[in-house]
Amino acid sequence: MDLAGNQVEGELNPSSDTKTHLVLYNAFPQLGGIVHTHSTFAVAWAQAGRDLPAFGTTHADYFYGPVPCARHLSQEELDEDYELNTGNTIVEAFRTRGIDPMAVPGVLCYSHGPFTWGKDAAQAVYHVVVLEEVAKMGVLTRMVDPSAQAAPDRYLEKHYMRKHGPDAYYGQAR
Ligand SMILES: [Zn+2]
């Protein structure tokens, strides 16, 4: 597909979610790949309509803050263009809350499930796997203590920046 939604190669029909992806690619030009799943634990947070808090360092290594839950679509939005407006609610969640989509490379769609993205398709897949894992950890954290809250900001800062900041030192040099 090109960014206007024209099929440019292949014989098979494009994904029914194509319009959602196009809205995201057009709104956030840094994106090189997008993934959507209905994975169990991420869906649990999406169905509850809750942001996934950054409970700990596993989350903070990849998501610089809570993974937001975008709002429900209205009846009009569902009728008018469900997939397009799903994309619009995602963009709205990031813009109204001032979230950088490259620092928080994923979202939960209310009553639906997660979308993640990255600089390419492989990184988008990686992020959806991490999101599912931290969503699972989050469910367990709230089971252990239903009032558990996000880790202190200094943990988020330390873990995100040592991996992604200007002075990143985590992992191997490439
Ligand atoms: Zn879906």
Q: Can you give keywords for this protein?
A:
four-stranded mixed β-sheet; globular; 174 residues; alpha+beta; binds zinc ion; 4 strands; 47% helix; L-fuculose-1-phosphate Aldolase
Give the CA-CA distance, first to last residue: 31 Å
Helix and strand string, N-terminal first?
A: HEHHEHEEHH
Put simply, the count of helices is 6
Number of discrete domains: 1
Give the biggest sheet.
Answer: 4 strands, mixed
Structure description:
This protein is of the alpha+beta class and 174 residues long. The chain has one domain: Class II aldolase/adducin N-terminal domain (L-fuculose-1-phosphate Aldolase, 3-Layer(aba) Sandwich), CATH 3.40.225.10. It is built from 6 helices and 4 strands. It has a 4-stranded mixed sheet, sandwiched between helices. Helix 1 packs parallel to helix 4 and helix 2 packs across helix 5 (121-144). The longest helix has 24 residues, at 121-144. The mean pLDDT is 95. The structure holds zinc ion. Residues 36, 38, 112-113 line the site of zinc ion. The site of zinc ion has 4 residues, from loops.
